[in-house]
Amino acid sequence: MQADVKNLKGETVTTVELPAEIFEAPINKALMHQALVRQLANARLGTHSTKRRGEVSGGGKKPWKQKGTGRARQGSRRAPQFVGGGKVHTPKPRSYRQDMPRQMRRAALRSALSVKAGDGQIVVVEDLNLDTIKTSAMAQTLVGLVGEGQSALVLLPAKNEPVERSLRNLTHAKYLRANYLNIRDLLGYDRVLLPLGALEVIQGYLG
Question: Mind listing the domains of the chain with CATH numbers?
């Protein structure tokens, strides 16, 4: 698959061949869904906790005698039907972690990249560098590359402090090191901004 390579002004300077094994891979929607659900589940803290009958204070004494009052028999004020009693079937701390083999995770990434490439949502740039840290300059650059009103995931081949700090306050854009590419960020943005250096990194572990 041929893709235009643009400079920071949005002008096409050359073309590049996108690896077919990554950007023209078979699209497996079920696999992408499984990978996304796994990532969202693994991000959950699972620290929710409620007090059950054996953990609330009070109780110990029978509220009233068993017979003769006309009321239902009760054995403890800690029962869930009383105000201040314990809760029933409520959550306790747990792990939501899901496992998924590496080969499946990478196959899901190839599927997602193929979807993006097929829809023309991958923008290849020659290089992405700024001389100074300036959010407004980066915002203007993104408009020229991905279009007005489009959100963008910017992949970087390595640490680039001017670009990272310039992107940090933009609500419609996010930077990510190419070796940390993940299914949630890939599917969560309208466009993927891909410098040639980041393309080499991705090809190194997905190719």
Answer: 2-45+100-206 (3.40.1370.10), 50-90 (no CATH)
